[in-house]
Fold:
Amino acid sequence: MGRNNTYINNPPRQVDVPVVSVAATDKEQPEFFSVLVTLTSAAASTPITILTDAQVGVGRVVKIRRYRLVVNGATAWTDATATDVRIRDKASSPVTLATILKAVLTGNAVLNEASASTTLAAGIITDSGATAGKGIEVFGTNGGTAANFAAGSDIKLLVEGWIVG
Structure:
């Protein structure tokens, strides 16, 4: 299963503080977040939470500033049917924020939002963010339907941005 390390701090401080509850903070103050999660190929169909709804807070919006995805080993992500890894929000009709195609999930790959074979959706491109009040997650898909991969070294995904609203 995945691992989630979440850190949030108020600007302009640069000291990371473990999150207890974002919802308890001043809702008008933007909150910076930096979260590292691990996604495994064999369990890629199970979404790994980057931020929970409670961490985002009612009426607030997650805006991804950047991400770095590392295939942490020599084994490429392969499968006959799985096609990509997606970052999306946790709404009942989820909004995809970024799609990273299987073709670039090669051994020891280091990717970000500007990498080839990465599609950014309006939530990142226009800075409109995810669905209000909803957290974000990452998982493997076959064109949007949850899917595991047959092989692949663990992915380490660092996502950074702001919670605003």
